[in-house]
């Protein structure tokens, strides 16, 4: 078949890869002039296969009033005259219950582990160079209550407990001496030695370059904005762009935050809304001490990852609509936290700032399904886990298109299961 993939981020490129592997003729369309220019461009760099807890959490509800009063809150909300924003927020609040949190983790974990195996295959077999490092991850907790909750969650999930370890503060400093400045401010951490890190943009470019030069090459139509779909009966016959129509036998929508508007004329309502994140990328000079392990500051919602000769610092979540402008106060917070953790050896003038819109569902689960037409497929809504889940969700979608049984359960990624259960536990 000729399949058009809409979206040139890590999810769209991964999807194109596995469709090409299945022998399909693939055309990838993106409005940017290069691949990986959206949420994939300068994300946190962490590949968190076993740390897949969604943002929607029962503990978040108690924190929202305090966050609303702080300009430097890790989660920030700006009300807009936007029905989509308010509808998404209501569903997000409904998702902040124990049932939906456990349900999301249970469905995301197998997909993430499947993605890990595929990512390692790219590294081992293809030799892609994207500053990949299997360095593990340490999540540090400044709050005694949140650390106790993390330990309880670890104890209640044997699959996680087999590979993760709860460490007291002294053990955290022993395993990662670069965070010594946090002594007296953290109560402990969760260490996962099997997590990885890498530069998502570099992987996007490596995938696109490889797919363009192999037999049956992927055709890249960059700098073209998708306007809609050409329909014939119950099927998509073509993708309408500002450069003309592209005929197809099937279409995959992996367009991030733009996806909801594209399928709305087809009668499809996607519960996806932008959650804006920020990052700085700082050169690591001689004598500057940075962590070898990827570190997550749980309370600050900030992650630190060493990527080659740079330190990537990313985090925060702003629910402010489709505004991708860099907020200077957020960048100032990232710089201040970096200095507080690792000293004044960084030159803030050398830091590269970025912000991106992560396509999030209220529950934190992506949507991998068919909707709107018999041959229109969705691979959307990965939120902050796009880099982590991209390979797994792409192959799962390729399996569904081919009629094969996917390698992991996909029922909870269907569109009709995207709504939260509003805290109602199913009866046994």
Write the layout of secondary structure elements.
Blueprint: E1 2-6, H1 10-21, E2 25-30, E3 46-47, H2 58-68, E4 75-77, H3 83-95, H4 98-126, E5 137-141, H5 144-156, H6 158-161, E6 165-168, H7 169-175, E7 188-192, E8 196-197, H8 200-213, E9 219-222, E10 226-232, E11 235-241, E12 244-247, E13 250-253, H9 259-263, E14 273-283, E15 294-297, E16 302-307, E17 310-319, H10 328-342, E18 352-360, E19 367-370, E20 376-380, H11 386-402
Parallel strand pairs: 1-2, 1-13, 2-9, 4-17, 5-15, 13-20
Antiparallel strand pairs: 3-8, 5-7, 6-7, 10-11, 11-12, 14-17, 14-18, 15-16, 16-17, 19-20
Helix pairs in contact: 1-8, 1-11, 4-11
Features:
25% strand; six-stranded mixed sheet; FAD/NAD(P)-binding domain; 20 strands; 428 residues; disordered C terminus; globular; alpha/beta
Task: Explain what this protein looks like in three dimensions.
The protein has eleven helices and 20 strands. With 428 residues, the chain is of the alpha/beta class. The protein has a single domain, classed as FAD/NAD(P)-binding domain (3-Layer(bba) Sandwich), CATH 3.50.50. Helix 1 runs parallel beside helix 8, helix 1 runs parallel beside helix 11 and helix 4 crosses helix 11. Helix content is 33%, strand content 25%. The N and C termini lie far apart (45 Å). Strands 4, 5, 6, 7, 14, 15, 16, 17 and 18 form a nine-stranded mixed β-sheet that branches.
């Amino acid at each position: 078949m000729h399949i058009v993939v809409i979206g040139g981020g890590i999810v769209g490129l991964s999807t194109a890869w596995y469709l090409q592997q299945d022998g399909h003729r693939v055309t990838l369309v993106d409005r940017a002039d290069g691949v990986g220019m959206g949420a994939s461009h300068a994300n946190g760099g962490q590949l968190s296969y076993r740390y897949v807890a969604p943002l929607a959490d029962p503990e978040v509800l108690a924190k929202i009033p305090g966050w609303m009063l702080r300009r430097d809150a890790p989660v920030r909300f700006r009300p807009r005259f936007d029905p989509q924003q308010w509808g998404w927020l209501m569903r997000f609040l409904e998702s902040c219950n124990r049932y939906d949190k456990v349900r999301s983790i249970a469905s995301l974990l197998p997909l993430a582990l499947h993605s890990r195996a595929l990512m390692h295959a790219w590294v081992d077999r293809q030799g892609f160079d994207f500053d990949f490092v299997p360095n593990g991850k340490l999540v540090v907790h400044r709050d005694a209550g949140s650390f106790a909750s993390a330990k309880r969650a670890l104890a209640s999930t044997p699959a996680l407990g087999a590979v993760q370890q709860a460490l007291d503060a002294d053990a955290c400093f022993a395993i990662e001496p670069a965070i010594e400045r946090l002594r007296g401010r953290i109560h402990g951490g969760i260490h996962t030695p099997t997590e990885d890190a890498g530069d998502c943009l570099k992987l996007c470019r490596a995938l696109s370059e490889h797919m363009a030069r192999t037999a049956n090459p992927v055709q890249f139509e960059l700098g073209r904005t998708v306007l809609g779909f050409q329909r014939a009966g119950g099927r998509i016959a073509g993708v309408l762009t500002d450069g003309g129509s592209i005929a197809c036998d099937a279409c995959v929508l992996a367009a991030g935050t733009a996806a909801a508007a594209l399928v709305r004329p087809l009668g499809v309502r996607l519960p996806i809304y932008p959650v804006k994140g920020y990052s700085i990328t700082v050169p690591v000079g001689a004598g500057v001490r940075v962590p070898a392990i990827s570190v997550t500051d749980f309370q600050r919602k900030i992650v630190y990852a060493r990527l080659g000769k740079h330190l990537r610092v990313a985090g925060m979540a702003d629910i402010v609509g489709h505004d991708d402008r860099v907020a200077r106060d957020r960048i100032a917070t990232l710089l201040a936290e970096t200095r507080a953790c690792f000293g004044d050896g960084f030159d803030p003038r050398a830091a590269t700032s970025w912000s991106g819109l992560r396509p999030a569902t209220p529950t934190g689960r992506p949507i991998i399904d068919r909707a709107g037409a018999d041959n229109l497929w969705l691979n959307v809504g990965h939120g902050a886990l796009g880099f982590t889940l991209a390979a797994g969700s792409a192959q799962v979608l390729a399996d569904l298109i081919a009629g094969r049984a996917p390698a992991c359960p996909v029922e909870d990624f269907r569109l009709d299961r995207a709504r939260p259960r509003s805290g109602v536990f199913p009866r046994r």
